[in-house]
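testing teh design pipeline on a random one, pls ignore if ur not involved
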Protein backbone atom coordinates (compact mmCIF):
# COMPACT_ATOMS: atom_id res chain seq x y z
CA UNK A 1 0.00 0.00 0.00
CA UNK A 2 2.90 2.35 0.70
CA UNK A 3 4.08 2.02 -2.89
CA UNK A 4 0.76 3.39 -4.17
CA UNK A 5 1.21 6.55 -2.11
CA UNK A 6 4.79 6.83 -3.35
CA UNK A 7 3.56 6.83 -6.96
CA UNK A 8 0.76 9.29 -6.19
CA UNK A 9 3.34 11.61 -4.62
CA UNK A 10 5.55 11.30 -7.71
CA UNK A 11 2.57 12.00 -9.94
CA UNK A 12 1.87 15.20 -7.96
CA UNK A 13 5.50 16.25 -8.45
CA UNK A 14 5.45 15.55 -12.19
CA UNK A 15 2.14 17.39 -12.59
CA UNK A 16 3.54 20.39 -10.69
CA UNK A 17 6.49 20.50 -13.07
CA UNK A 18 4.14 20.21 -16.04
CA UNK A 19 2.21 23.25 -14.81
CA UNK A 20 5.44 25.22 -14.33
CA UNK A 21 6.66 24.38 -17.84
CA UNK A 22 3.22 25.23 -19.24
CA UNK A 23 3.32 28.64 -17.53
CA UNK A 24 6.78 29.44 -18.94
CA UNK A 25 5.83 28.24 -22.41
CA UNK A 26 2.68 30.37 -22.36
CA UNK A 27 4.92 33.46 -22.45
CA UNK A 28 6.52 32.32 -25.72
CA UNK A 29 3.97 30.07 -27.42
CA UNK A 30 1.99 32.79 -29.17
CA UNK A 31 4.63 33.10 -31.90
CA UNK A 32 5.92 29.54 -31.72
CA UNK A 33 5.60 26.98 -34.45
CA UNK A 34 6.53 23.35 -34.85
CA UNK A 35 7.63 21.25 -31.89
CA UNK A 36 7.38 24.03 -29.30
CA UNK A 37 3.78 24.70 -30.30
CA UNK A 38 3.02 20.96 -30.10
CA UNK A 39 4.52 20.69 -26.61
CA UNK A 40 2.52 23.73 -25.52
CA UNK A 41 -0.73 22.26 -26.84
CA UNK A 42 -0.02 18.92 -25.16
CA UNK A 43 0.66 20.59 -21.83
CA UNK A 44 -2.45 22.75 -22.26
CA UNK A 45 -4.55 19.61 -22.68
CA UNK A 46 -3.09 18.23 -19.46
CA UNK A 47 -2.95 21.36 -17.31
CA UNK A 48 -5.95 23.47 -18.35
CA UNK A 49 -8.68 21.26 -16.80
CA UNK A 50 -7.03 21.61 -13.37
CA UNK A 51 -6.17 25.29 -13.76
CA UNK A 52 -9.69 26.15 -14.93
CA UNK A 53 -11.04 25.07 -11.54
CA UNK A 54 -9.05 27.87 -9.95
CA UNK A 55 -9.74 30.41 -12.69
CA UNK A 56 -13.43 30.18 -11.87
CA UNK A 57 -12.66 31.08 -8.25
CA UNK A 58 -10.00 33.70 -8.93
CA UNK A 59 -10.37 35.84 -12.05
CA UNK A 60 -7.29 37.57 -13.51
CA UNK A 61 -6.08 40.62 -11.60
CA UNK A 62 -5.80 43.69 -13.80
CA UNK A 63 -2.31 45.21 -13.80
CA UNK A 64 -2.55 48.26 -16.00
CA UNK A 65 -4.14 47.06 -19.21
CA UNK A 66 -3.01 43.45 -18.80
CA UNK A 67 -4.58 40.65 -16.78
CA UNK A 68 -2.36 38.74 -14.35
CA UNK A 69 -3.50 35.14 -13.94
CA UNK A 70 -2.83 34.01 -10.36
CA UNK A 71 -4.60 30.66 -10.71
CA UNK A 72 -1.38 28.67 -11.35
CA UNK A 73 0.02 29.88 -8.02
CA UNK A 74 -3.07 28.65 -6.18
CA UNK A 75 -3.08 25.40 -8.18
CA UNK A 76 0.57 24.72 -7.33
CA UNK A 77 -0.11 25.49 -3.68
CA UNK A 78 -2.98 22.98 -3.63
CA UNK A 79 -0.83 20.37 -5.38
CA UNK A 80 1.98 20.83 -2.87
CA UNK A 81 -0.50 20.57 -0.01
CA UNK A 82 -1.87 17.37 -1.55
CA UNK A 83 1.65 16.04 -1.99
CA UNK A 84 2.44 16.71 1.68
CA UNK A 85 -0.73 14.96 2.81
CA UNK A 86 -0.03 11.95 0.59
CA UNK A 87 3.58 11.71 1.79
CA UNK A 88 2.37 11.38 5.37
CA UNK A 89 0.09 8.42 4.61
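output:
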Amino acid sequence: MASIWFYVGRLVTVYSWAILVYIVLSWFASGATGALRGVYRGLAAICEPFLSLFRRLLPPVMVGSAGLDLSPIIALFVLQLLGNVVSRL
